[in-house]
Amino acid sequence: MKSLSDVTRRSFDLCTAVFLLVLCVPVLIFSAIAVLLDGSGGGVFAEGQLRVGSGGRLFHMYKFRTMVPGAHRNLRENPHYRQLYNRQKQNGKLSLSEDVRITRVGKFLRMWDLDELPQLVNVIRGEMSLVGPRPYFPEELTDIQRNVTHGSQLVAEMLSVRPGMTGVWQVSGRNEIPMQKRLTMDASYANGRTFVDDVKILLRTPWVVLSRRGAW
Fold first, then answer.
1. Distance between CA 62 and CA 65 in Å, rounded?
2. How many CB atoms lie within 10 A of CB 137?
């Protein structure tokens, strides 16, 4: 049975996501056209975006394509990309700060987080929340459970709630924060989240985006 807090959060997510989606229609259209005209080939949306949601349920996360076609597959199959990936994991981060797979338009979209706007559809569908832990790839969670201290416990705690478009570590430094700390922050949020905390994180998010702190 859902608590009053869960109902309040879901109602807030739904109403806010619908409002933002309508408000951002011009930006979404501009971004989609820019991706298509970039010259790198491929479609508007990123491929291979199967993520793990609440309770371990898989869902397709919508995101504008910011990389060359086949980028996710090449990260693990191309020796050059694999070397970059392994080096970044050793630093405790999964993002690649100097990723040659990112397109020219993709760099701009990522800088201002415009590539994330299609996730408003995921929020409306109930697969994500506006605020929550990062939505991970299945293979990322497997790596975390194997290689991160208390990884299995942290993953279980994060998956107890819906993943979010923004979250506690995203407004606290984003890609500057090491993976272990990210996971701990997300798990702590999932265990003690409140609606007031969500509102505070949402209010901080625009400033973080505009300041571009930790943006890759």
1. 9
2. 16
Do 135 and 163 meet the contact criterion of CB atoms below 8 Å apart?
Answer: yes
Tokens of 151: 């990884």
User: Where are the alpha helices (H) located in the chain, listed in sequence order?
Assistant: 4-23, 25-36, 71-77, 79-90, 104-111, 119-125, 138-147, 151-158, 179-192, 195-211
In the block, residue with structure tokens 């994180």: 201
Alpha-carbon span 197 to 207, nearest angstrom:
16
pLDDT at 81: 66
Q: Which two tokens mark 81?
A: 């990309």
Q: What is the mean pLDDT of each run of 10 residues along the chain (216 residues)?
A: 78 97 97 91 89 97 90 67 63 58 90 95 97 94 92 96 95 84 95 92 92 62
